[in-house]
């Protein structure tokens, strides 16, 4: 007996010793599931990549965030949300996005941009943005005769700025007296630039300058050497542009290789995927309406149902999906659309016909009863015929939330009742039920102005948002309250 107790004690001690290092590796345990500390590091890295590095003061907030995410993930899984097709499609799209991002990151890591390459890009930038800058004014009109008349007026002493404000068809500069601000000659269309650079400071064109926009009268205000941004000022920008160009070049090469290899393989993609190191994915159900991660992308639908792909089982051409995705598809199995046997759908058809018949009968009875109520039968007596009780009189407005929307809409479409009478009508509700109503009186709304109505609508929207936020917050609080969370206090210190 003592040996058994001793063995049990030793086992317990060993289990305790093993549990300590295991817990030390975890941030917390949520409903019995360990949450590794590495999740905190992964989330911190993701935030840093997005330009939001985590400060030391935010570390515990980040740890709480990881615990909260696990609670929410467990609840979503319990509700089966991860089993829906929509969820799976979103996961696939996210996976593709991450893979593409990692591909570009891997390329940048393996192909760092050298100082010489950045300097070469700067030299191109300097060459394109060097030389002189010009500050000019212009007046743009549609007809040559009109432009010639303006030149005559200007030579007689008319003020350029005033005519530009009054007559120029250029909406950008006209209001500013024709001022085009500083720009290099390459910023303008060739005809305009050629005429402008021939002018000296303060000079004006003697004849109209024709361009695709109309006829211009140009006056050159000032000339100055173009300000050149220094290498250090533009280095980060140029390096980013160069990396993007290189990545796009790699993407184009990979896309072209995919297209060529898929064409050569003709009717299989396994070897293509293996050679290029690309994922080979399967979509179980795809129809003429689309499906899977491609949604209703028309280019994919057209490719899948083309004769070569659908009938001959050949690989499709490379299909471009946006700027950073290319896909090749092939059909592995195809089942033509077929009508289900009558025996398979007989019960469904009978149920549908029965429901339709019952609904039509209910609508007809309700309309006949509404006519009797409008003629003088009380709503209570009409309800007794069907073994029902009326809901009781109540006042409603167009925004009443206690009344079903379909019923509310029918009530406000009903004609105003005559004195001492009621206006009766029916409405088919969303669930298929038929409602009978009687309007005994109508009062005009107290809305004084459109502004008041707008404020009321905004107040209602705000209240609805507040209610929704409060309801969601209560839901989240309850999830966190009922979750069994055991935190590793040493990690949270």
Figure out the total of helices.
17
Which geometry do the CA atoms define? Answer: extended
Name the structural class: alpha+beta
Mean pLDDT: 81
| Strand line-up across the major sheet | 4-3-6-5
Quick one: how many beta strands? 11
Count of domain modules: 4
* Low-pLDDT windows of residues: 1-23
Distance between the termini: 44 Å
User: Into which percentage range does the β-strand content fall?
Assistant: 5-15%
The SSE order reads HEEHHHHEHHEHEEHHHHEEHHHEEHEH
Task: Summarize the structure in words.
By secondary structure, the protein is of the alpha+beta class. The protein folds into four domains: 18-83 and 463-493, no CATH class; 85-125 and 231-338, no CATH class; 131-227, Chitinase A, domain 3 (Roll); 355-439, no CATH class. 53% of the residues lie in helices and 12% in strands. A hairpin with a 5-residue loop joins strand 9 and strand 10 (434-439). Helix 5 (115-129) packs across helix 9 (231-265).
Please give the structural blueprint.
Elements lengths: L1 H23 L1 E5 L2 E4 L1 H12 L9 H20 L6 H26 L4 H15 L2 E10 L2 H12 L4 H8 L11 E5 L6 H8 L11 E3 L2 E12 L5 H35 L4 H7 L21 H7 L2 H4 L8 E2 L5 E2 L14 H34 L3 H6 L20 H9 L9 E6 L5 E6 L10 H33 L2 E3 L1 H4 L1
Antiparallel strand pairs: 1-2, 1-11, 3-4, 3-6, 5-6, 7-8, 9-10
Helix pairs in contact: 5-9
Name the features.
17 helices; extended; 11 strands; disordered N terminus; Chitinase A, domain 3; alpha+beta; 4-stranded antiparallel beta sheet; 53% helix; 493 residues; 4 domains; 3-stranded antiparallel beta sheet; 12% strand
